[in-house]
Amino acid sequence: MEKKNQESWHVEKSINLGSLVSLVAVVAALFTYMSRLEGRISILEVKIDTKSRQNQQRDQQSKDLGVEIKADLKELRAKIDTAMERQNKSH
Questions:
Q1: DSSP annotation of 67
Q2: Among 12, 56, 57, 83, which residue has the fewest nearby CB atoms (within 10 Å)?
């Protein structure tokens, strides 16, 4: 029985050609996948950077518009106050 076990558990030191071809194919596929993934990541980084700049510009425009609105409101208050004072003086 010991002789049977020794024969069934034999490890060869040679590499099968089919295994070698399969290994090369897997490595090539993995390399291709990683290259494409890197390209997609680069594109997304550019898009994110562009969107970030656009958001910053919109934020600045909103702040500028807020400042203009406040100035306009201040001017309107002053005009209303002046008109009310004139109306009170005429009565």
A1: H
A2: 12
Under DSSP, is residue 9 helix (H, G, I), strand (E, B) or coil? coil
**Ordered DSSP codes for 24-91:** HHHHHHHHHHHHHHHHHHHHHHHHHHHHHHHHHHHHHHHHHHHHHHHHHHHHHHHHHHHHHHHHHHH-
Whole-structure pTM value: 0.56
Euclidean distance between CA atoms 19 and 22, whole angstroms = 5
Q: What would the pLDDT profile of 55-70 be if each residue is shown by its tens digit?
A: 999 999 999 999 999 9
Between CA 17 and CA 75 the distance in angstroms is 87
CA–CA separation, 65 and 57 (whole Å): 12
